[in-house]
Design goal:
- The complex is a heterodimer of chains A (202) and B (210).
- With 202 residues, chain A is mostly helical.
- Chain A is built from ten helices and no strands.
- In chain A, helix 1 crosses helix 2 and helix 8 packs across helix 9.
- By secondary structure, chain B is mainly α.
- Chain B is built from nine helices and no strands.
- Classes of the chains: A mainly alpha (202), B mainly alpha (210).
Chain lengths: 202, 210
């Protein structure tokens, strides 16, 4: 399986005028891009703004994207450049950010979370999601949990997972899907409105 | 929700779906809100499994959608080849406009020149009949009065051309062309002398070469 096929399919649709396809790309990469930007700016709200700007730049630059590299590589490059420019333009270094705080990851994370405008509800939402996902992961059968962990945490391809789990690729695909469905079901149960509040995730 | 479709969506999310299926599903994903919500939750689950802050970044998609809502889609601004390929750049559009305007101007000038070059022959034919007495007058010396009357029509048409294509032409070239038209207008509006016979140029009359 050649990498980036699904992204490329979506990119081609955007290039032919389908904006909805770009929404799908943003939904897929918004967490990763924002997390990447958070390496340059610690303020979550600012990171979101920069991530948004990066996506908009990517949308406008899509006619120049020829698929020579993976879409996410291209997107990450745009995000990194946007973040660096933002840091330079605001004359702010990520190292110098609030030197009165301890420079541990924990303090940065706490600081970032506390600075979020939607702190009370947002923190509860995040904690609920995390707790629910962890509980759902723990409840998964071993083979499903291993498959989703290898995929999401280690970033292995289906073929690599199949090799490590000694099973066919089709089985890996099925296990990952079933794992996701089980977690998703728990998420939707927690957020009573079904899709309503769970859509906040995206 | 169709389980097979969801399974395909999960595989597509991981870039593990065959290309043909991917393209079909991408089309549906771009339109189906429920499918997009599921796709979004798959992303959030991945972020949560990796220990990320699911909330942070979860709002970016909405902000981007709102920000891009006012922008025209690529299809409205660009023509992308069906097979993908490199999209045409923006720079050719003004150049194409200039090229069109230049072509129109060049054709108009050539047309005028063609009219001018044809005119003497027509005048010779027309003038030679009534002015038979002027036998010694060489045809090539006939004053091309009729050319002036012909000039009014092309000038008007040319002006119409210029106005019609003014949006493609640069202000300088448009001004130049209009200036030329205005300069030619008085000559064209001069009525022909009432009884001037088609006479030869007396200065050239004794030219031994003719």
């Amino acid at each position: 399986m050649s990498a980036d096929v699904s992204d490329l399919s979506l990119v081609r649709r955007v290039q032919s005028g389908d904006k909805g396809a770009f929404d799908a790309l943003v939904l897929k990469y918004q967490h990763k891009v924002t997390k990447l930007v958070m390496r340059y700016v610690r303020n979550p709200a600012e990171a979101e703004d920069i991530a948004q700007e990066a996506f908009i730049k990517a949308y406008r630059a899509l006619p120049q994207f020829r698929g020579d590299s993976a879409f996410y590589t291209w997107l990450y490059r745009i995000a990194i450049n946007t973040a660096k420019n933002a840091v330079v333009s605001r004359d702010r270094s990520p190292v110098d950010y609030d030197l009165d705080m301890q420079n541990s990851d924990e303090s940065y994370e706490l600081q970032g979370r506390m600075k979020d405008a939607e702190t009370p509800e947002g923190l509860v939402l995040t904690d609920e999601i995390r707790t629910t996902v962890n509980a759902a992961m723990d409840a998964l059968p071993e083979d499903l949990r291993t498959a989703i962990v290898l995929r999401e945490l280690e970033g292995l391809s289906y073929e690599e997972i199949a090799a490590s789990m000694d099973c066919p690729v089709g089985t890996v695909r099925s296990r990952i899907f079933r794992a996701r469905e089980a977690i998703d079901r728990r998420l939707r149960e927690v957020f009573e409105g079904g899709l309503g509040r769970a859509e906040e995730l995206g | 929700m169709n389980e097979e479709l969801d399974s395909q969506l999960s595989a597509m999310f991981d870039d593990e779906l065959p290309q043909g299926e991917c393209e079909l599903l991408a089309r549906r994903l771009a339109r189906d809100a429920a499918l997009q919500a599921r796709w979004s939750r798959y992303a959030a689950i991945g972020a949560a499994v990796r220990g990320g802050d699911v909330r942070i970044g979860g709002r970016v998609a909405r902000k981007v959608t709102v920000a891009l809502a006012a922008e025209a889609s690529w299809a409205e601004r660009y023509v992308i080849p069906p097979g993908g390929g490199r999209a045409p750049a923006r720079w050719w559009r003004p150049l194409a406009g200039v090229a069109v305007a230049a072509s129109v101007a060049a054709l108009s000038i050539l047309w005028l020149h063609g009219g001018l070059s044809r005119a003497p022959a027509e005048l010779v034919a027309r003038a030679s009949a009534p002015s038979a007495p002027a036998v010694d007058t060489p045809a090539s010396y006939v004053v091309p009065r009729a050319v002036e009357s012909r000039m009014t029509v092309p000038a008007t048409e040319l002006a119409n051309y210029v106005v019609a294509h003014s949006e493609f032409s640069t202000p300088v070239s448009r001004r130049n062309l209009l200036s030329a038209l205005m300069a030619s207008e008085p000559a064209a509006s001069v009525p022909p002398e009432p009884s001037a016979p088609p006479v030869g140029d007396p200065n050239h009359h004794a030219d031994p070469a003719h």
